[in-house]
Amino acid sequence: MSPNQKAGWRCYFKHWVIAMGLLLITAISCSLMQYFLGIDIFWFIVFAFIGSLSLIFSSLFAWLQLETGNSYFSTVVFVGFLNVYLVLYIYLDLTVPIDWAAVSAGEIQLTWYQKMVRSDLTFWIGFLFPFIFSVVHFSVRSRTAKSKN
Questions:
Q1: Where is the chain membrane-spanning (predicted)?
Q2: Which residues contact 1 (CB under 8 A, 6 or more apart)?
Q3: Measured at the alpha carbon of residue 5, what is the angle toward residues 4 and 11, in degrees to the nearest 5?
């Protein structure tokens, strides 16, 4: 392995460790919220689900950060945004009151807010934001560098 390849792997690994470490904290926080605010037997499922998603996300995001040449600080900021988003989403999902019996009986309709909090799309969109921010950050940085030359 050449020195450049070793340096590339080291940078990839640092981005991966940063992302995975922050998301592991999120997985622990979300599983604790599930334990204390929701049905306590599902905490392990929440931890395993978010942990496995974190592994996949960290691997892909570290590669993107390496390819775009973004800094470790940007990895912390972008993944930190995802962390806050996921913790807030899980908290709202557990605390927004919904009378499912009345909804299924047709007596009431879910509000827009309740639909948004309960939507699977809302959960998955959170994982897109760090990728979008990373590419936009790279584009802005590239244009700034071109305009200086």
A1: 12-35, 41-64, 71-92, 121-140
A2: 9
A3: 90
Count of other CB atoms within 10 angstroms of residue 89? 17
| Residue 72: alpha-carbon gap to chain centroid | 16
pLDDT for the residue 98: 78
Cβ 6 vs Cβ 63: under 8 Å = no
Q: Which residue has the tokens 């950050």?
A: 137
Tokens 């605010």 locate to 37
Cα-Cα-Cα-Cα dihedral of 72, 76, 81, 85, to 10°? Answer: 130
pTM of the model: 0.86
Could you give the CA distance from residue 44 to residue 18 in angstroms, rounded to a whole number? 23
69 Rama class: left (phi>0) / alpha (psi -120 to 50) / beta = left
pLDDT tens-digit series, residues 84-134: 999 999 999 898 887 777 777 877 787 888 888 888 899 999 999 999 999
The Cα–Cα gap between 42 and 29 comes to 14
Instruction: Provide the 8-state DSSP code for 42.
Output: G
Please report the sign of the dihedral spanned by the C-alpha atoms of residue 14, residue 18, residue 23, residue 25: positive
